Protein backbone atom coordinates (compact mmCIF):
# COMPACT_ATOMS: atom_id res chain seq x y z
CA UNK A 1 0.00 0.00 0.00
CA UNK A 2 1.33 3.42 -0.98
CA UNK A 3 2.11 6.01 1.70
CA UNK A 4 0.80 8.66 -0.67
CA UNK A 5 -2.91 8.30 -1.19
CA UNK A 6 -5.74 10.59 -2.24
CA UNK A 7 -9.24 11.07 -0.87
CA UNK A 8 -12.16 9.25 -2.43
CA UNK A 9 -13.48 11.25 -5.39
CA UNK A 10 -10.11 12.83 -6.14
CA UNK A 11 -10.09 13.89 -9.81
CA UNK A 12 -7.39 12.69 -12.22
CA UNK A 13 -6.99 14.52 -15.48
CA UNK A 14 -4.81 15.50 -18.47
CA UNK A 15 -4.66 18.81 -20.29
CA UNK A 16 -3.99 20.29 -23.72
CA UNK A 17 -4.70 23.59 -25.49
CA UNK A 18 -6.19 24.30 -28.91
CA UNK A 19 -3.26 26.10 -30.57
CA UNK A 20 -0.84 23.47 -29.29
CA UNK A 21 -2.64 20.38 -30.63
CA UNK A 22 -5.39 21.06 -33.16
CA UNK A 23 -3.60 22.09 -36.34
CA UNK A 24 -6.05 22.73 -39.22
CA UNK A 25 -5.06 26.36 -38.83
CA UNK A 26 -6.92 27.53 -41.93
CA UNK A 27 -9.42 24.76 -42.52
CA UNK A 28 -13.22 24.70 -42.58
CA UNK A 29 -13.61 28.43 -42.06
CA UNK A 30 -11.35 28.95 -39.05
CA UNK A 31 -10.14 32.53 -38.61
CA UNK A 32 -6.51 33.35 -37.88
CA UNK A 33 -5.26 33.59 -34.34
CA UNK A 34 -2.33 35.62 -33.09
CA UNK A 35 -0.32 32.40 -32.82
CA UNK A 36 -0.90 31.65 -36.51
CA UNK A 37 0.47 35.08 -37.31
CA UNK A 38 3.30 34.79 -34.81
CA UNK A 39 4.59 31.37 -35.83
CA UNK A 40 4.54 32.42 -39.49
CA UNK A 41 6.83 35.34 -38.64
CA UNK A 42 10.45 34.30 -39.26
CA UNK A 43 12.63 34.11 -36.17
CA UNK A 44 9.88 33.80 -33.57
CA UNK A 45 9.85 30.02 -32.97
CA UNK A 46 13.22 28.51 -32.01
CA UNK A 47 13.08 25.58 -34.44
CA UNK A 48 11.29 27.55 -37.18
CA UNK A 49 8.23 25.33 -36.77
CA UNK A 50 4.55 26.31 -36.79
CA UNK A 51 1.28 25.17 -35.25
CA UNK A 52 -0.22 24.64 -38.72
CA UNK A 53 -0.61 20.89 -38.16
CA UNK A 54 0.67 20.28 -34.61
CA UNK A 55 -0.87 16.98 -33.42
CA UNK A 56 -3.63 17.29 -36.01
CA UNK A 57 -6.16 16.78 -33.25
CA UNK A 58 -8.78 18.58 -35.33
CA UNK A 59 -8.85 15.39 -37.38
CA UNK A 60 -7.53 12.91 -34.82
CA UNK A 61 -9.53 13.90 -31.74
CA UNK A 62 -10.99 10.41 -31.52
CA UNK A 63 -7.49 9.05 -30.99
CA UNK A 64 -6.96 11.56 -28.18
CA UNK A 65 -10.21 10.47 -26.55
CA UNK A 66 -9.14 6.82 -26.86
CA UNK A 67 -5.88 7.62 -25.05
CA UNK A 68 -7.82 9.34 -22.27
CA UNK A 69 -10.18 6.40 -21.97
CA UNK A 70 -7.21 4.07 -21.78
CA UNK A 71 -5.77 6.07 -18.88
CA UNK A 72 -9.02 6.05 -16.95
CA UNK A 73 -9.00 9.80 -16.22
CA UNK A 74 -12.17 11.39 -14.89
CA UNK A 75 -11.62 14.70 -16.72
CA UNK A 76 -9.96 16.12 -19.82
CA UNK A 77 -8.98 19.79 -19.92
CA UNK A 78 -8.85 21.28 -23.43
CA UNK A 79 -9.41 24.74 -24.84
CA UNK A 80 -11.61 26.22 -27.53
CA UNK A 81 -9.94 28.11 -30.35
CA UNK A 82 -11.94 31.32 -30.30
CA UNK A 83 -11.23 31.99 -34.00
CA UNK A 84 -12.34 28.48 -34.98
CA UNK A 85 -15.91 29.15 -33.90
CA UNK A 86 -15.99 32.95 -34.31
CA UNK A 87 -13.50 33.66 -37.13
CA UNK A 88 -13.57 37.43 -36.65
CA UNK A 89 -13.82 37.19 -32.89
CA UNK A 90 -17.39 38.45 -32.55
CA UNK A 91 -20.75 36.73 -33.06
CA UNK A 92 -21.25 38.52 -36.37
CA UNK A 93 -19.83 35.45 -38.11
CA UNK A 94 -20.33 31.96 -36.72
CA UNK A 95 -18.33 29.08 -38.16
CA UNK A 96 -20.71 26.16 -37.75
CA UNK A 97 -18.07 23.57 -38.71
CA UNK A 98 -15.91 24.78 -35.85
CA UNK A 99 -18.84 24.60 -33.45
CA UNK A 100 -19.57 21.07 -34.69
CA UNK A 101 -15.96 20.05 -34.01
CA UNK A 102 -16.23 20.90 -30.31
CA UNK A 103 -19.63 19.21 -30.10
CA UNK A 104 -18.10 16.03 -31.49
CA UNK A 105 -15.18 16.22 -29.08
CA UNK A 106 -17.43 16.85 -26.06
CA UNK A 107 -19.83 14.06 -27.06
CA UNK A 108 -16.96 11.61 -27.57
CA UNK A 109 -15.60 12.44 -24.12
CA UNK A 110 -18.95 12.04 -22.42
CA UNK A 111 -19.58 8.76 -24.24
CA UNK A 112 -16.27 7.57 -22.74
CA UNK A 113 -17.25 8.66 -19.25
CA UNK A 114 -14.85 11.63 -19.21
CA UNK A 115 -15.93 15.04 -18.02
CA UNK A 116 -14.91 17.92 -20.31
CA UNK A 117 -13.14 20.87 -18.67
CA UNK A 118 -13.11 23.73 -21.14
CA UNK A 119 -10.68 26.63 -21.14
CA UNK A 120 -12.17 29.54 -23.05
CA UNK A 121 -8.89 31.35 -23.58
CA UNK A 122 -5.53 29.64 -23.84
CA UNK A 123 -3.70 32.46 -25.65
CA UNK A 124 -4.99 32.10 -29.25
CA UNK A 125 -6.74 35.44 -29.62
CA UNK A 126 -8.48 35.99 -32.98
CA UNK A 127 -6.13 38.08 -35.12
CA UNK A 128 -8.95 40.43 -36.08
CA UNK A 129 -9.35 41.42 -32.42
CA UNK A 130 -5.59 41.88 -32.12
CA UNK A 131 -5.82 44.23 -35.10
CA UNK A 132 -8.08 46.38 -32.92
CA UNK A 133 -5.57 46.37 -30.07
CA UNK A 134 -6.28 42.96 -28.51
CA UNK A 135 -6.12 42.91 -24.74
CA UNK A 136 -5.08 46.55 -24.62
CA UNK A 137 -8.44 47.70 -25.99
CA UNK A 138 -10.97 47.89 -23.18
CA UNK A 139 -13.66 46.82 -25.62
CA UNK A 140 -12.27 43.30 -25.27
CA UNK A 141 -14.26 42.89 -22.07
CA UNK A 142 -17.41 42.92 -24.19
CA UNK A 143 -15.89 40.78 -26.93
CA UNK A 144 -14.83 38.15 -24.42
CA UNK A 145 -18.19 38.28 -22.64
CA UNK A 146 -19.99 37.73 -25.93
CA UNK A 147 -17.71 34.83 -26.84
CA UNK A 148 -18.15 33.27 -23.39
CA UNK A 149 -21.94 33.55 -23.61
CA UNK A 150 -21.81 31.92 -27.04
CA UNK A 151 -19.83 28.99 -25.60
CA UNK A 152 -21.99 28.55 -22.49
CA UNK A 153 -25.10 28.60 -24.65
CA UNK A 154 -23.81 26.18 -27.27
CA UNK A 155 -21.78 23.74 -25.20
CA UNK A 156 -23.01 24.28 -21.64
CA UNK A 157 -25.82 21.76 -21.79
CA UNK A 158 -23.19 19.01 -22.03
CA UNK A 159 -19.97 20.62 -20.71
CA UNK A 160 -20.12 21.65 -17.06
CA UNK A 161 -16.68 22.86 -16.02
CA UNK A 162 -15.34 26.13 -17.37
CA UNK A 163 -12.03 27.92 -17.06
CA UNK A 164 -12.21 31.47 -18.35
CA UNK A 165 -8.52 32.25 -18.82
CA UNK A 166 -5.28 30.31 -18.76
CA UNK A 167 -2.36 32.03 -17.04
CA UNK A 168 -3.16 35.70 -17.54
CA UNK A 169 0.24 36.44 -15.97
CA UNK A 170 2.03 34.76 -18.89
CA UNK A 171 -0.25 36.38 -21.47
CA UNK A 172 0.44 39.82 -19.95
CA UNK A 173 4.23 39.60 -19.56
CA UNK A 174 5.25 37.35 -22.42
CA UNK A 175 2.78 38.82 -24.87
CA UNK A 176 2.70 42.49 -23.96
CA UNK A 177 5.92 43.61 -22.33
CA UNK A 178 8.01 45.66 -24.73
CA UNK A 179 11.15 43.68 -23.92
CA UNK A 180 9.74 40.16 -23.68
CA UNK A 181 9.09 39.16 -27.21
CA UNK A 182 8.67 35.44 -26.72
CA UNK A 183 4.90 35.06 -27.06
CA UNK A 184 2.25 36.34 -29.46
CA UNK A 185 1.40 39.07 -30.23
CA UNK A 186 4.92 40.06 -29.07
CA UNK A 187 7.53 42.32 -30.47
CA UNK A 188 5.45 45.44 -30.41
CA UNK A 189 7.91 48.28 -30.23
CA UNK A 190 5.20 50.71 -29.35
CA UNK A 191 4.40 48.81 -26.18
CA UNK A 192 4.88 50.98 -23.17
CA UNK A 193 5.62 49.88 -19.63
CA UNK A 194 1.90 50.28 -19.00
CA UNK A 195 0.95 47.48 -21.39
CA UNK A 196 1.28 44.32 -19.24
CA UNK A 197 -0.76 45.94 -16.45
CA UNK A 198 -3.42 47.10 -18.86
CA UNK A 199 -3.61 43.64 -20.46
CA UNK A 200 -3.95 42.03 -17.03
CA UNK A 201 -6.59 44.57 -15.97
CA UNK A 202 -8.73 43.84 -19.00
CA UNK A 203 -8.23 40.10 -18.56
CA UNK A 204 -9.50 40.30 -15.00
CA UNK A 205 -12.53 42.35 -16.04
CA UNK A 206 -13.19 39.90 -18.89
CA UNK A 207 -13.02 37.01 -16.47
CA UNK A 208 -15.51 38.65 -14.12
CA UNK A 209 -17.86 39.50 -16.99
CA UNK A 210 -17.85 35.87 -18.19
CA UNK A 211 -18.32 34.49 -14.67
CA UNK A 212 -21.28 36.79 -13.97
CA UNK A 213 -22.89 35.85 -17.27
CA UNK A 214 -22.58 32.19 -16.39
CA UNK A 215 -23.97 32.83 -12.94
CA UNK A 216 -26.92 34.92 -14.10
CA UNK A 217 -27.91 33.23 -17.32
CA UNK A 218 -26.80 29.61 -17.23
CA UNK A 219 -25.88 28.26 -13.83
CA UNK A 220 -29.36 27.44 -12.58
CA UNK A 221 -30.23 25.45 -15.61
CA UNK A 222 -26.84 23.98 -16.52
CA UNK A 223 -25.53 23.39 -13.04
CA UNK A 224 -21.86 23.78 -13.86
CA UNK A 225 -18.87 25.53 -12.35
CA UNK A 226 -16.62 28.30 -13.57
CA UNK A 227 -13.08 29.16 -12.47
CA UNK A 228 -9.74 30.49 -13.74
CA UNK A 229 -6.25 28.96 -14.10
CA UNK A 230 -3.39 30.93 -12.54
CA UNK A 231 0.28 30.03 -12.71
CA UNK A 232 2.77 30.61 -9.97
CA UNK A 233 6.34 29.71 -9.21
CA UNK A 234 7.01 29.16 -5.54
CA UNK A 235 9.14 32.13 -4.40
CA UNK A 236 11.92 31.07 -2.08
CA UNK A 237 13.79 33.97 -0.43
CA UNK A 238 17.46 33.71 -1.42
CA UNK A 239 18.66 34.59 2.12
CA UNK A 240 17.24 35.42 5.53
CA UNK A 241 17.98 39.11 4.90
CA UNK A 242 14.70 41.02 5.49
CA UNK A 243 15.07 42.66 2.07
CA UNK A 244 15.10 39.27 0.36
CA UNK A 245 12.21 38.02 2.50
CA UNK A 246 10.23 41.10 1.51
CA UNK A 247 11.23 40.65 -2.13
CA UNK A 248 9.95 37.07 -2.14
CA UNK A 249 6.62 38.18 -0.72
CA UNK A 250 6.41 41.01 -3.24
CA UNK A 251 7.22 38.58 -6.06
CA UNK A 252 4.38 36.33 -4.90
CA UNK A 253 1.90 39.21 -4.79
CA UNK A 254 3.03 40.44 -8.20
CA UNK A 255 2.55 37.03 -9.78
CA UNK A 256 -0.25 35.11 -8.05
CA UNK A 257 -1.75 37.90 -5.93
CA UNK A 258 -2.04 40.20 -8.95
CA UNK A 259 -4.87 37.97 -10.20
CA UNK A 260 -5.92 35.92 -7.20
CA UNK A 261 -6.40 38.76 -4.73
CA UNK A 262 -9.17 40.42 -6.74
CA UNK A 263 -11.06 37.13 -7.14
CA UNK A 264 -10.36 35.07 -4.03
CA UNK A 265 -9.48 37.41 -1.14
CA UNK A 266 -11.98 38.84 1.35
CA UNK A 267 -11.10 42.46 0.60
CA UNK A 268 -10.80 42.12 -3.21
CA UNK A 269 -8.84 44.48 -5.50
CA UNK A 270 -5.14 44.14 -6.33
CA UNK A 271 -2.97 43.28 -3.33
CA UNK A 272 -2.32 46.35 -1.18
CA UNK A 273 1.40 45.61 -1.30
CA UNK A 274 1.39 45.69 -5.10
CA UNK A 275 -0.74 48.83 -5.28
CA UNK A 276 1.63 50.66 -2.95
CA UNK A 277 4.72 49.36 -4.71
CA UNK A 278 3.48 50.37 -8.16
CA UNK A 279 2.26 53.78 -6.95
CA UNK A 280 5.66 54.53 -5.45
CA UNK A 281 7.50 53.30 -8.53
CA UNK A 282 5.29 55.33 -10.85
CA UNK A 283 5.89 58.42 -8.73
CA UNK A 284 9.64 57.89 -8.93
CA UNK A 285 9.28 57.63 -12.69
CA UNK A 286 7.70 61.06 -12.66
CA UNK A 287 4.23 59.87 -13.64
CA UNK A 288 0.99 61.51 -12.59
CA UNK A 289 -0.76 58.18 -12.01
CA UNK A 290 0.23 54.61 -11.20
CA UNK A 291 0.97 52.21 -14.03
CA UNK A 292 -1.27 49.75 -12.17
CA UNK A 293 -4.82 50.65 -13.25
CA UNK A 294 -7.54 51.19 -10.66
CA UNK A 295 -10.78 49.25 -10.32
CA UNK A 296 -14.04 51.02 -9.53
CA UNK A 297 -15.94 49.84 -6.44
CA UNK A 298 -18.40 48.11 -8.73
CA UNK A 299 -15.62 46.25 -10.50
CA UNK A 300 -14.11 45.19 -7.20
CA UNK A 301 -17.47 43.75 -6.17
CA UNK A 302 -17.97 41.99 -9.48
CA UNK A 303 -14.53 40.37 -9.31
CA UNK A 304 -14.76 39.34 -5.70
CA UNK A 305 -15.89 35.72 -5.46
CA UNK A 306 -16.02 35.32 -9.25
CA UNK A 307 -14.79 31.71 -9.27
CA UNK A 308 -16.17 28.40 -8.04
CA UNK A 309 -12.69 26.90 -7.87
CA UNK A 310 -9.05 27.95 -8.02
CA UNK A 311 -7.20 26.47 -11.00
CA UNK A 312 -3.46 26.27 -10.31
CA UNK A 313 -0.72 25.64 -12.85
CA UNK A 314 2.52 24.82 -11.09
CA UNK A 315 5.85 23.86 -12.63
CA UNK A 316 8.63 24.90 -10.28
CA UNK A 317 10.17 27.14 -7.61
CA UNK A 318 12.32 30.23 -8.07
CA UNK A 319 14.80 31.87 -5.71
CA UNK A 320 14.14 35.55 -5.15
CA UNK A 321 16.62 38.21 -4.21
CA UNK A 322 15.96 41.90 -3.71
CA UNK A 323 17.62 43.98 -6.43
CA UNK A 324 17.54 47.69 -7.18
CA UNK A 325 17.64 47.87 -10.95
CA UNK A 326 18.79 50.79 -12.98
CA UNK A 327 18.31 51.37 -16.70
CA UNK A 328 21.93 50.45 -17.30
CA UNK A 329 21.79 47.08 -15.50
CA UNK A 330 22.49 44.42 -18.11
CA UNK A 331 20.04 41.56 -18.66
CA UNK A 332 17.25 43.17 -16.75
CA UNK A 333 13.73 42.88 -18.03
CA UNK A 334 10.79 45.11 -17.26
CA UNK A 335 9.10 42.56 -15.05
CA UNK A 336 12.08 42.23 -12.72
CA UNK A 337 12.86 45.95 -12.79
CA UNK A 338 9.26 46.73 -11.84
CA UNK A 339 9.33 44.16 -9.06
CA UNK A 340 12.69 45.20 -7.67
CA UNK A 341 14.09 41.69 -7.50
CA UNK A 342 15.83 38.95 -9.44
CA UNK A 343 14.54 35.40 -9.79
CA UNK A 344 16.86 32.47 -10.42
CA UNK A 345 17.39 28.73 -9.92
CA UNK A 346 19.38 27.21 -7.12
CA UNK A 347 22.13 25.29 -8.97
CA UNK A 348 21.45 22.30 -6.72
CA UNK A 349 17.95 21.82 -8.02
CA UNK A 350 17.59 18.80 -10.28
CA UNK A 351 17.16 19.82 -13.92
CA UNK A 352 14.56 17.77 -15.76
CA UNK A 353 14.19 17.34 -19.52
CA UNK A 354 17.60 18.15 -20.95
CA UNK A 355 19.99 21.07 -21.09
CA UNK A 356 17.55 23.47 -22.78
CA UNK A 357 14.86 22.80 -20.21
CA UNK A 358 13.72 25.43 -17.69
CA UNK A 359 12.16 22.74 -15.49
CA UNK A 360 13.64 21.97 -12.08
CA UNK A 361 12.26 19.29 -9.82
CA UNK A 362 11.03 21.32 -6.83
CA UNK A 363 7.90 19.52 -5.56
CA UNK A 364 8.18 21.12 -2.09
CA UNK A 365 7.38 24.42 -3.85
CA UNK A 366 4.03 23.00 -4.93
CA UNK A 367 3.19 22.03 -1.37
CA UNK A 368 4.14 25.55 -0.28
CA UNK A 369 1.98 27.19 -2.94
CA UNK A 370 -0.97 24.98 -1.96
CA UNK A 371 -0.56 26.04 1.65
CA UNK A 372 -0.23 29.67 0.60
CA UNK A 373 -3.53 29.49 -1.29
CA UNK A 374 -5.17 27.70 1.63
CA UNK A 375 -4.09 30.39 4.08
CA UNK A 376 -4.58 33.46 1.91
CA UNK A 377 -7.79 32.52 0.15
CA UNK A 378 -9.89 30.73 2.69
CA UNK A 379 -9.07 27.19 1.54
CA UNK A 380 -11.09 27.57 -1.67
CA UNK A 381 -11.46 24.29 -3.63
CA UNK A 382 -8.34 24.03 -5.75
CA UNK A 383 -7.93 22.06 -8.96
CA UNK A 384 -4.38 21.60 -10.18
CA UNK A 385 -5.02 22.41 -13.84
CA UNK A 386 -1.40 21.86 -14.97
CA UNK A 387 1.75 20.19 -13.73
CA UNK A 388 4.30 18.28 -15.75
CA UNK A 389 7.70 18.37 -17.36
CA UNK A 390 9.38 18.15 -20.72
CA UNK A 391 11.77 15.89 -22.53
CA UNK A 392 13.74 16.64 -25.68
CA UNK A 393 12.69 15.53 -29.12
CA UNK A 394 13.83 11.98 -30.02
CA UNK A 395 14.37 11.11 -26.37
CA UNK A 396 12.34 7.93 -26.76
CA UNK A 397 9.51 6.50 -24.73
CA UNK A 398 11.19 5.52 -21.45
CA UNK A 399 10.60 8.78 -19.63
CA UNK A 400 11.83 7.89 -16.16
CA UNK A 401 12.56 11.54 -15.38
CA UNK A 402 8.92 12.44 -15.99
CA UNK A 403 7.74 9.62 -13.73
CA UNK A 404 10.08 10.95 -11.05
CA UNK A 405 8.93 14.54 -11.50
CA UNK A 406 5.19 13.79 -11.61
CA UNK A 407 5.52 11.23 -8.81
CA UNK A 408 7.35 13.67 -6.55
CA UNK A 409 4.74 16.35 -7.22
CA UNK A 410 1.87 13.94 -6.58
CA UNK A 411 3.47 12.99 -3.27
CA UNK A 412 3.61 16.67 -2.35
CA UNK A 413 -0.07 17.01 -3.25
CA UNK A 414 -0.97 13.98 -1.15
CA UNK A 415 0.87 15.49 1.85
CA UNK A 416 -0.75 18.89 1.27
CA UNK A 417 -4.15 17.23 1.44
CA UNK A 418 -3.63 14.60 4.13
CA UNK A 419 -1.20 16.40 6.43
CA UNK A 420 -1.82 20.10 5.80
CA UNK A 421 -5.56 20.01 5.12
CA UNK A 422 -5.38 21.74 1.73
CA UNK A 423 -8.59 21.57 -0.26
CA UNK A 424 -7.13 20.08 -3.44
CA UNK A 425 -9.85 18.39 -5.49
CA UNK A 426 -7.85 17.08 -8.43
CA UNK A 427 -4.63 16.86 -10.41
CA UNK A 428 -4.10 17.44 -14.13
CA UNK A 429 -0.95 16.40 -15.91
CA UNK A 430 0.38 18.65 -18.66
CA UNK A 431 0.15 17.17 -21.19
CA UNK A 432 -1.86 14.32 -22.70
CA UNK A 433 0.31 14.38 -25.84
CA UNK A 434 3.52 15.99 -27.06
CA UNK A 435 2.55 19.27 -28.66
CA UNK A 436 3.54 22.70 -29.98
CA UNK A 437 5.37 24.28 -27.05
CA UNK A 438 4.81 27.91 -28.12
CA UNK A 439 8.06 29.77 -28.84
CA UNK A 440 9.95 26.54 -28.08
CA UNK A 441 8.27 24.85 -31.05
CA UNK A 442 8.76 21.08 -30.87
CA UNK A 443 12.08 21.18 -29.00
CA UNK A 444 10.54 20.66 -25.55
CA UNK A 445 7.84 18.00 -25.38
CA UNK A 446 5.51 17.63 -22.40
CA UNK A 447 3.35 14.64 -23.39
CA UNK A 448 2.83 11.41 -21.51
CA UNK A 449 2.14 10.13 -25.02
CA UNK A 450 4.58 10.89 -27.80
CA UNK A 451 3.50 12.20 -31.18
CA UNK A 452 5.69 11.58 -34.23
CA UNK A 453 5.88 15.04 -35.82
CA UNK A 454 7.92 13.65 -38.72
CA UNK A 455 5.06 11.39 -39.78
CA UNK A 456 2.12 13.07 -41.57
CA UNK A 457 -0.23 10.67 -39.76
CA UNK A 458 0.99 11.98 -36.40
CA UNK A 459 0.87 8.61 -34.66
CA UNK A 460 0.59 8.67 -30.86
CA UNK A 461 2.51 6.22 -28.67
CA UNK A 462 2.34 5.88 -24.90
CA UNK A 463 5.46 6.80 -23.00
CA UNK A 464 6.27 4.76 -19.90
CA UNK A 465 4.75 7.54 -17.78
CA UNK A 466 1.33 6.93 -19.34
CA UNK A 467 1.08 3.36 -18.04
CA UNK A 468 2.46 4.44 -14.66
CA UNK A 469 -0.06 7.33 -14.49
CA UNK A 470 -2.85 4.87 -15.30
CA UNK A 471 -1.79 2.72 -12.35
CA UNK A 472 -1.81 5.76 -10.05
CA UNK A 473 -5.34 6.58 -11.19
CA UNK A 474 -6.47 3.00 -10.56
CA UNK A 475 -4.90 2.97 -7.09
CA UNK A 476 -5.89 6.60 -6.32
CA UNK A 477 -2.37 6.80 -4.93
CA UNK A 478 1.22 7.31 -6.03
CA UNK A 479 2.42 3.87 -7.10
CA UNK A 480 6.01 2.78 -7.37
CA UNK A 481 8.01 3.85 -10.41
CA UNK A 482 9.10 1.13 -12.86
CA UNK A 483 12.77 0.14 -12.81
CA UNK A 484 14.95 1.89 -15.35
CA UNK A 485 16.57 -0.46 -17.85
CA UNK A 486 20.38 -0.14 -18.09
CA UNK A 487 20.34 1.63 -21.45
CA UNK A 488 17.87 4.25 -20.31
CA UNK A 489 19.11 7.79 -20.27
CA UNK A 490 15.93 9.88 -20.25
C1 LIG B 1 2.04 26.55 -19.29
O1 LIG B 1 2.66 27.78 -19.13
C2 LIG B 1 1.05 26.67 -20.41
O2 LIG B 1 -0.25 26.87 -19.90
C3 LIG B 1 1.08 25.54 -21.39
O3 LIG B 1 0.40 25.93 -22.53
C4 LIG B 1 2.51 25.13 -21.64
O4 LIG B 1 2.61 24.22 -22.68
C5 LIG B 1 3.05 24.58 -20.36
O5 LIG B 1 2.97 25.53 -19.33
C6 LIG B 1 4.49 24.10 -20.44
O6 LIG B 1 5.36 25.16 -20.65
O7 LIG B 1 11.26 32.13 -18.47
O8 LIG B 1 12.36 30.22 -17.49
O9 LIG B 1 9.98 30.46 -17.25
C7 LIG B 1 3.95 27.92 -19.61
C8 LIG B 1 4.57 29.23 -19.25
C9 LIG B 1 6.20 30.71 -20.09
C10 LIG B 1 6.83 28.60 -19.16
C11 LIG B 1 7.55 30.82 -20.72
C12 LIG B 1 8.17 28.72 -19.80
C13 LIG B 1 9.84 30.26 -20.52
C14 LIG B 1 10.96 29.80 -19.63
N1 LIG B 1 5.84 29.32 -19.90
N2 LIG B 1 8.54 30.11 -19.92
S1 LIG B 1 11.15 30.71 -18.12
From TrEMBL:
GO terms for biological process: carbohydrate metabolic process. The keyword Glycoprotein applies. This is Beta-glucosidase. Signal peptide: none annotated. GO terms for molecular function: beta-glucosidase activity. Belongs to the glycosyl hydrolase 1 family. Homodimer. The lineage of its organism: Eukaryota, Metazoa, Ecdysozoa, Nematoda, Chromadorea. The keyword Transcription regulation does not apply. InterPro entries: GH, Glyco_hydro_1. Keywords: Glycoprotein, Glycosidase, Hydrolase.
Amino acid sequence: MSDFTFPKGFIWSCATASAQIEGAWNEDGKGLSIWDTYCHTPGKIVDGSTCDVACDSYHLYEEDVALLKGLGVQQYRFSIAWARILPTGTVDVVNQKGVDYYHKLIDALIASGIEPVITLYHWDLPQSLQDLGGWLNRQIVDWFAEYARFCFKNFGTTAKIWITLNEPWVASWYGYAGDAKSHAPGGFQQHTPWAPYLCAHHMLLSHAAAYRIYEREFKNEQNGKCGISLNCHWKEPATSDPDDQAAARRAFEMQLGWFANAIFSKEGDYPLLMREHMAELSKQEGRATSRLPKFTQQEIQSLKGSADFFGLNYYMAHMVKSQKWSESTPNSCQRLRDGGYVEFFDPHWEQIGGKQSWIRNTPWGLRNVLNFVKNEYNNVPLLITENGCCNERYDGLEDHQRIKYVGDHLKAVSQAINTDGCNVIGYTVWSLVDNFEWAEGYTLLFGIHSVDFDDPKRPRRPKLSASWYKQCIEANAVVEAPQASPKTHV
